[in-house]
């Protein structure tokens, strides 16, 4: 008689085979549809979308994605609900192009790699430089012609002048998303515009202070990690720019059918793997982690501390969950984290975090007043009156 463990293994094996078969069939279907569209003259030319890379003077990881061109109307020209809905449809209805040669040009050096089944390209390169900061990287579709075959990308290189890095969640940490409310979350993901979404009060000034650091040199890298799909990359990037939130690599996840299952699947392992990737590519730089209590940021960050120890200086968690018992869970996590030498703060606003950061010498003290001022300016009129 088979044991429970053996039955579980058998089910897992069958599911793995099923997902692999479904994924293979879906890729074949997509390729067939593109051939038909090309024959009918309906297929759009390929284009390359660049993502921000990062690393050190020894190794930098650069990323891009190859898709059929999407002529999404700029947000400044979208005036109606229908315009927003159609733009959202275009963001999600991507046609990924695998097996395309992408050439990466960095100063006088170049590398070439093929896009994978989902159109992604990821290359580790030896950067031709000796100092940190932002650098231009160009991605070009090899063997292709047309106006959309190239994309200007950027990469941040850490060096000894960087005091620390910051890894931040996005939903309900930077952007008001109401991630625990399914209806509001769906509206934020599919129908909202970057210019109409709101940041949490004071977050832009606080993140700028962290980016500038004690020296004010603006060499502390900012990273944004989320379980939102890569389809929202341009949307999220526009939001950060509109609200003057410091520039930095944005790491999202692929949604849909994969060889191992469907995503999203309710788990957040993706965020953990991206954080590990950041820490490995920027060693030995220390970090501050920022998230919220609405989902599993505290638990994930505790795992990061267990793995990387003293490299994590502090964890800031915005109180966002009204769930009974969550406060007790946060207290337990705080004890475990602080026993490993990392500070853990559950905070109600950005001013509290700024005061703590200033007391540790991570930002300048006069920035606390700036954060408080910007927090008040960011509040809606009713909140101004009540405060």
Give a quick summary of the entry:
The protein has 387 residues and is of the alpha/beta class. It contains eleven helices and 15 strands. The strands form three sheets. A seven-stranded mixed β-sheet has the order 4-3-6-7-1-2-5, with no helix packed on it. It has a six-stranded parallel β-sheet with strand order 10-9-8-13-14-15, with helices on both faces. A two-stranded antiparallel sheet has the order 11-12.
Task: Describe the structure in your own words.
- It is a single chain.
- This protein has 387 residues and is of the alpha/beta class.
- Helix content is 37%, strand content 25%.
- It is built from eleven helices and 15 strands.
- The strands form three sheets. It has a seven-stranded mixed β-sheet, with no helix packed on it. A six-stranded parallel β-sheet has the order 10-9-8-13-14-15, with helices on both faces.
- α8 links the parallel β14 and β15.
- The protein is globular and about 65 Å long.
- It starts with a helix and ends with a helix.
- Mean pLDDT is 85; it is low at 382-387.
């Amino acid at each position: 008689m088979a044991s429970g463990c053996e039955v579980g293994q058998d089910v897992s094996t069958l599911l793995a085979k099923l997902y692999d078969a479904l994924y293979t069939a879906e890729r074949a279907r997509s390729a067939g549809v593109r051939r038909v569209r090309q024959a009918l003259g309906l297929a759009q030319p390929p284009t390359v979308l660049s993502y921000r890379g990062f690393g050190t003077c020894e190794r930098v990881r650069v990323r891009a994605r190859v898709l059929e061109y999407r002529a999404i109307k700029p947000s400044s020209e979208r005036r109606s609900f229908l315009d927003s809905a159609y733009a959202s449809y275009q963001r999600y209805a991507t046609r990924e192009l695998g097996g395309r040669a992408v050439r990466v040009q960095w100063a006088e050096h170049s590398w070439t790699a093929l896009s994978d089944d989902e159109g992604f390209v990821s290359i580790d390169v030896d950067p031709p430089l000796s100092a940190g900061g932002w650098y231009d990287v160009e991605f070009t579709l090899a063997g292709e012609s047309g106006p959309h075959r190239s994309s200007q990308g950027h990469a941040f290189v850490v060096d000894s002048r960087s005091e620390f890095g910051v890894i931040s969640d996005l939903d309900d940490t930077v952007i008001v998303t109401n991630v625990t409310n399914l209806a509001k979350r769906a509206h934020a993901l599919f129908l909202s515009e970057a210019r109409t979404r709101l940041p949490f009060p004071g977050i832009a000034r606080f993140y700028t202070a962290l980016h500038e650091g004690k020296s004010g040199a603006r060499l502390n890298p900012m990273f944004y990690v989320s379980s939102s799909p890569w389809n929202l990359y341009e949307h999220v990037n526009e939001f950060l720019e509109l609200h003057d939130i410091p520039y930095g690599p944005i790491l999202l996840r692929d949604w849909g059918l994969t060889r191992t299952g469907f995503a999203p699947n309710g788990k957040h392992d993706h965020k953990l793997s991206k954080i590990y990737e950041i820490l490995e590519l920027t060693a030995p730089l220390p970090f501050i982690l920022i998230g919220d209590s609405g989902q599993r940021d505290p638990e994930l960050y505790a795992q990061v501390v267990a793995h990387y120890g003293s490299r994590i200086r502090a964890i800031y968690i915005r109180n966002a969950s009204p769930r009974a018992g969550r406060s007790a869970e946060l207290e337990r996590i705080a004890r475990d984290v602080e026993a490993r030498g990392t500070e853990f703060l559950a905070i109600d606003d950005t001013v509290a975090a700024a005061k703590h950061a200033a007391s540790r010498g991570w930002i300048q003290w006069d920035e606390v007043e700036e954060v408080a001022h910007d927090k008040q300016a960011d509040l809606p009129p009713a909140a101004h009156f009540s405060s």
